[in-house]
Amino acid sequence: MEQVVILGGGVAGMQTAIALNDLGIKSVLVEKEPELGGKVKNYDKTFPFFRSGKALVRELDESVKTSSLIEVRTGTEVSSVTGTAPNFQVKLTSADQKIPAGAIVVATGFEPFDASLQEEYGYGVYPNVITATELEHLLDFDGPTGGELERPSDGEIAKRVAIVFCVGSRSEKLGHNYCSRICCSFSTKQAIEIKERYPDARVTCFYMDIRTYGRGFEEMYRRAQELGINYIRGRVAECGMLPNGDITIKAEDTLLGKPVRGTFNLVSLSTGMVPCLDAPRIASLLGIKLAEDGFFDCRDNDLYPNDASREGVFLAGSAIGMKPIPDCISDGNIAAARAAAFLKKQVIPQGFY
Amino acid sequence: MPTVPYNTRAREKIWTRYIKEVPEERFLFLPSCVLGVGYPGTETMIPGIFDLLGLDWNWNLGPESVCTCCSGIAYHGDVAPIESTLLTTARLWSLAQEAGYDAIAVACVTSFGVHCECFDLYREEPGLKKKMDRLLMEACGRKFELPRHIVHVSDVIYQHRMKLGGEFMVHRLTDKATGQSLRGVDHVGCHYHKLFPLERSLGGAEYCEVLSGLVKAWGGEEVDYPERRHCCGMGFRQCMITPNRSVTTACVNKKLESMEPFGPDFMVTNCPGCQVYLDKEQWAIRELTGKEYFVPVLTYMELAGLLLGWDPYDVVGIQFHTVPVEPLLDKIGIPYDESKAWLGKDGQPLFCADEIRRATPAAGKAREGQLLE
Amino acid sequence: MDEESKKQRDDKSSLDPKRQAYPGQSMPVQGVPDEIDAIKKLLTEELEPWFRRDSSVQGRDARRCREYLDSLSDEELISQYNELRDQKVVWDNGYFYPNIKRLFMTPFEREKDRREIAVWERQYGDSEVVKWYQESRSQPCTWWIENHIITKHAFHSCMNCGLCTAVCPAAEFNDYNPRKIMETVQRKDEEEIVELLKADTIWFCVQCGSCQTRCPRGNSPFGLISSLRQLCQLKGYHTASVRGRQQYAGRHLWGGNYWNRGWSLYFRNPVVESNLDFGPRFARYFQNKEEIYRRVGGCPDMDGSMPGRKVPPETLHQLRRCFQVGGALHLWDQIEKYAREQAREWDMDIDDYLYKVWHEG
Hints:
Chain A is an alpha/beta fold. Chain A contains 7 helices and 20 strands. The radius of gyration of chain A is 22 Å and the shape is elongated.
């Protein structure tokens, strides 16, 4: 029986497998970490509706477990792919035998940008400059501080917080010209969480543009403003540290046209996303192209956004470019449908090459 | 003293991304305008240190081949178009090639910046080299090639800092009384690390290491403070056309205000402009605000000279400083004879004893009022 | 380099950091008289005001001196200056040029500089660089922005993120905003740009380059401003603003130093009266600068390689040619022209005008 090999067990990969199962097609879900769930399994709250990421992953996990046609292989990676569609032979690092695949779906996700590369912010050097991922853990009630916003240097509750947008994105200097799309949203979400937990806190967001679009997103932004979160339109230029660990920030308030200086207890860098570090290796294994921004390229940006550049290979989730969770789930369904259609027809579409 | 330390290992991981190639020797030495005007002792020491290290170097080769200003101040002061600067630097590169060297070592940071800017323009504009070949031939009958290395003299000193510290220096940057390392604020000239951080700055733009490396190698401790990367405010036309100088004073004040809580013992600079204004504006700040910072500001060369045991007044020239350096010498344990400060070239006193006492105030007891006799 | 010079250079026996000569420079000849009569002859009562540096030459004196200088041809004036400049005496084991201190920053030197531009233009014509700058004066500002070598590389698509203004030291202390300047230029509206050039705005930049380091798109606001400042002076818009007019001072301070001494600054430039912020120790040193310089090994107004040195005429000529071919002389000509126009408009002597623009701000 024809089966589909899915690379990546995050939410996009999991949904692909579930959708294929619903269509009666067998799939092998390959994940390099010991657990399924990708990045979302660590998120306490997601945007814009503040639902639990952990619960979402648990639900998907249940569905995967109860699906008879999904074979899960965790703690393993792809080491080689031979043959052509619909007769791929996929070899994994954990087993000697080759797995046959009629189609392959790439759902390998993303990595957060390494904030220490944007040196002017002093990430890693100044203890109270943290990343959004670290802030997420601090705000998590099941996390290391039990949900208290204790800053790294001395454990004091941070009452003056700055959130810096566009770290690692929209910068030719850093080699990432693109916008990472979701950072405005998760930053706003985090700002709301802080302000709701500590109503007397001062939270300031330094942004270039507010890119919160889609149902519920603009509403979330408005809610943030109504809570009294400060939005200053100006990209942060540099951070310094005072003797007591407070962080100084330099930016321009471009709407008022003046430079501003601020002192904060804690600064969170909303890092953008870069393609998963394996992307070049996987691209060469599968014989598919990467786009200029380093994410996987699709066959046609308008008509075939979930088809890779090679026949029989499909793409889902952040591997193509950053997107919110519902879009990743959507992508899973799309990739499953495209793979299923391919298996059914096994015909090379007109004008493919 | 700071209560929250910063992560030195993370800092090192960042600056070590920017190690630039500095030749061991064989360079044409290009002196500076401002350094010669404000702190001539620094520049007269450079040949001495080069010779001490046994380097192969040269400078003015003959009456037609004397080094001139690179025209950086004219360019940044907007009285020279870029083409005249390109020609002036091309002539200097031609001098290096005349001497058989493929490297130039400049004493001034504006100069360093200008040489790098010119070099970069050749890379960005394809037809420029041919055009400048033609123009330089027309102007002074010379040919030139792009130099393989453009370095600053502080790069060379950095390169040899261990040798200087280990083999030649007789003093260390430690407090004689307590044995603790002295805290040195490094102020690297803007045009050294901000213009082309990847290719030209030893340590990059944010955590430039060229001066703090010297401080650490010679027994001191580096200091990080929020306004560390802030320009000194020299600003070319801002300081040299005197009605505009308030921005310079304001910038120096900003930096001093920011560094004070970190308890610096001294500042070290590699840019002549920065040296002049970080030193001299501290007097103006005292007059205007009453606040006496009086952190001694030394060039890297003066620091080296003092630690090598060279005479503070005869060779290093600390009497040129507005902020007294003597308190720092006391801390380190470098001996000096204050009565020798204001002697002339033959050891004759230039001022009477009374004036000498008034002219060398210890920090905190600086003389009020009268600036001229 | 010959063996003797090499030996001189490599001699470390006394580790004397006070190196004096460049290889090949000849040492002074014994028996040269200490005083030279020609100096005294020229310093008549008539000419004396031209050597005053402290304030402008006003009214009656200016007229008298100008009458005298007008009576000299360009070549006579220049050769008189050069003769004075190159007169030397023996002092402290070297040659000392005593007149440079009488000549620098005087109306006499400035008048000579002005006339010399005309002589050089007659002698050497317009280089291709000068021709380009001449053409640019008749073109709109937007043409310059698209064609000037610096602007082409300093500026492409600004997204107004504000990083430049965030770190700008000038923006901290002045009503100045580099981002707004980038935006104005980006809009390419000729009228708006001309208005920008006629204001004080572009003259606040300290040319530190902090903006270039930070810009995420790789722009260089300070490079753009450098370029705009050139355009402004070529078109004469700079005389419309207080800070712009100061360029006349820059032309003589740096231009005069380059043309006559080969370096941008001269060790006698920072006079105490204009630098009271430097404090009393500086004033002490400045009173006896030659001696103190000499003590640390400098060559104040002397032949040699150390700070304060006089650049030999052969090298100075090469530098001047670089400035002429490269268009600096032409730029100075333009600056002089617009200064003359404005001085005439204000019914002021040109040296009074210089004093005024140098002390305003």
